[in-house]
Design a protein that fits this description.
The protein has 89 residues and is of the alpha+beta class. The protein has a domain at 3-62: Zinc finger, PARP-type (first zn-finger domain of poly(adp-ribose) polymerase-1, 2-Layer Sandwich), CATH 3.30.1740. The protein contains one helix and five strands; from the N terminus they run E-E-E-E-E-H. It has a three-stranded antiparallel beta sheet. Strands 2-3 form a two-stranded antiparallel ribbon. A hairpin with a 2-residue loop joins strand 4 (31-38) and strand 5 (41-47).
């Protein structure tokens, strides 16, 4: 990967889905916008700030830095699959 950028946005200007929990990030809510270049393609995502922190915890727990994230929605701000109770770390 040759490029990675992460930007904290105080107030989102558009509505979008969080890549982690699939819940809406509505206009005016804080968000984290990421962009990267991977194998010649540009990818971007929008996340709730608490979901960005959850990704860091998930990667630390599973030792999965640089790998793909789960293909299913996770709890907002958590590291378990959506609907599953969060386990203490």
């Amino acid at each position: 990967m040759g490029f990675y950028r992460e930007t904290n946005v105080k107030k989102a200007r558009i509505e979008s889905r969080c890549e982690w929990c699939s819940e809406w990030i509505t206009k005016g809510q804080p968000a984290v916008v990421t962009a990267c270049l991977f194998e010649g393609e540009i990818y971007d995502s929008r996340l709730h700030p608490e979901c960005r922190e959850a990704i860091r915890r998930y990667n630390t727990k599973h030792k999965s830095w640089g790998e793909s994230l789960p293909d299913f929605a996770m709890n907002r701000g958590g590291i378990e699959e959506k609907g599953e109770p969060e386990q203490p770390i």
